[in-house]
Amino acid sequence: MAETECVQSELCKKSQVGEIETVNSQENETKRQKLHEVGVRNAEKPVRNQLLKLCKNLNNFFFKGFLDGNFIPFICGGSTVGLVTPWVVIQLENYPEVFSITEESIMFAEHITEPQARNKALDRVLRDLKAKDTFLPLSGWREECYEIKRIFSEPPLFKIERSASPLFGMRKYGVQITGYVNHSAKGLCLWFQKRSPTKPTWPNMMDNFVGGGITEGISVLDTAIKEAGEEADVPAEIAANLKAVGTVSFFHESDRGIHPNTEFVFDLELPEDFVPHNNDGEVSDWQLVPVDQVVEVICSEDFKITSSPVVVDWLIRQGIVTHDSEPDMPEIVELIHLPLHNFYI
Predict the structure, then answer these.
(1) What is the per-residue pLDDT across 58-89, written as a single tens digit (0 to 9) for each?
(2) Taking the CA atoms of the chain, what radius of gyration do you get in angstroms?
(3) E strand map for 197-307
(4) Cβ neighbours around 275 below 10 Å, total
(5) Quick one: pLDDT at residue 345?
(6) What are φ and ψ of residue 19, in 5° steps?
(7) Of 213, 98, 117, residue with least CA distance to 158
(8) For 157-169, how does the pLDDT look when each residue is reduced to its tens digit (9 = 90+)?
C-alpha cells in the first residue's frame, strides 16, 4: 500500500512538469496541455539559422514524444528512472515475473527489491530479447553496463546493458573531449574523427575528437583518459592537461530509442605535431578542421548529432559564436543544457 501511494505521489510530481497525465486531475492536465502547446509552437517556429535548427533536431524527443506523453515512466526507488515507449512496453508485458506494468507506470515486480536482484532479472530479460532478435539495439550488445541512479551522485539502483538503455529511455552519462590545435598555418582548428563502418551505432559518421559512455565502476576523469588513449592514442603526458569545463545535456530520439544524455565535457589543447591514431578499431579516419568550417561540418547530415552540442558549447565558450553572430544564442544555450534532472524525479 505504501509503495502504491509513493508511486501516485511521484506521478503527480511528474504531471506538474508535463511529463505524464494524472487521472482525474483537470488542473494538472491543463498545465500539461499548455506546456505541450508552447513546445509545439517553439518546435514549429521558422528556424533562422542552422545552429538553432541543429539544436532543435538534437532535442527532437523533448519537442515531440516527451510533450505528447508518449511513454510510460519506469519507476524504481520512488523515482522515475526511465521513459518507455509503447512499442517496448508491449514486449515487456511478456515478463510479468520481472515487471509490474500498469497504464501509469512500470516497476520491478514486488519481490525484486535489491540492486543485485534487479540486475539479474533485467539481464535475464534482455538476453532473452536479444536471443529472439526482438530489438535492433540489442544486436550491438557490448557486455558493458550503465549504472542507473536517481541522481548522478547517489549509489546505483541497478545496472543495464549499455545497448539496451535507449529502449528504456534511461539516462546515460558520458565524456566528450574537444581536441583543438593552434596551428601555425591553419589557425585555430579542431580534430574530428570518422567512426568505423563496423560501429553498431552511427557507423561511418563524423564525430567529435573523443567520446565514450561512463560504465560501471569507472570515474568521469578515468573514463576520459581511457577513451583518449583508446580512440586517439593520446599519451599520458598530454592527457594530463585535460580541462573539465562542465556538461551538456539533451533529449534525443533515434531509431534505437530515447537518449536522455548528459556529457561531461573536457577541453584538450593538442600540439601541432600531434596526429591521432586509433587503437580500438572504432575510428576509421581523422580530419583537422579549421574553426571557420566547423559549423558547416557539425550541421551536416554526416555528423553524429548527439556529439554536436559539445562542439557548439566549445564555439560559444571560445567567443566564436556570440550574440552578435547568432541572435538566437540564448535559445541555443538552453537547448544544449536541457535540465534532464527535472524530468526524472
Answers:
(1) 999 999 989 889 899 999 999 999 999 999 99
(2) 21
(3) 206-207, 210-213, 243-254, 257-269, 283-290
(4) 12
(5) 83
(6) -80, -40
(7) 117
(8) 999 999 999 999 9
Chain centroid, CA 137 distance in Å = 15
Contact 166, 174 (CB under 8 A): no
Block residue for cell numbers 517553439:
42
- pLDDT averaged over the chain? 89
Residue 3: which residues within 8 A CB-CB, separation 6 or more?
110
Residues in the chain: 345
Residue 2 has pLDDT above 60, yes or no: no
Look up residue 108 and give its amino acid.
F
CA 209 to chain CA centroid, nearest Å: 17
**Residue 48 has what pLDDT?**
55
Which has the closest alpha carbon to 337: 244, 262, 243? 262
Over residues 281-311, the pLDDT tens digits come to: 999 999 999 999 999 999 999 999 999 999 9
Alpha carbon 273 to its chain centroid, in Å, reads 33
Q: What distance separates the 2 farthest-apart alpha carbons in the chain? A: 70
Tell me the C-alpha distance between 110 and 99, whole Å. 9
Cβ(32)–Cβ(15) below 8 Å? yes
Give the residue carrying C-alpha cell 568550417.
Answer: 293
DSSP calls for 284-314: EEEEEEEGGGHHHHHTSTTB-GGGHHHHHHH
CA–CA–CA angle 266, 53, 35 (5° rounding)? 95
Q: Would you give the DSSP letter of residue 337? A: B
pTM for this prediction: 0.85
Q: Distances from the Cα of 119 to the Cαs of 98, 114, 116, 280, 313, in angstroms?
A: 11, 9, 5, 28, 35
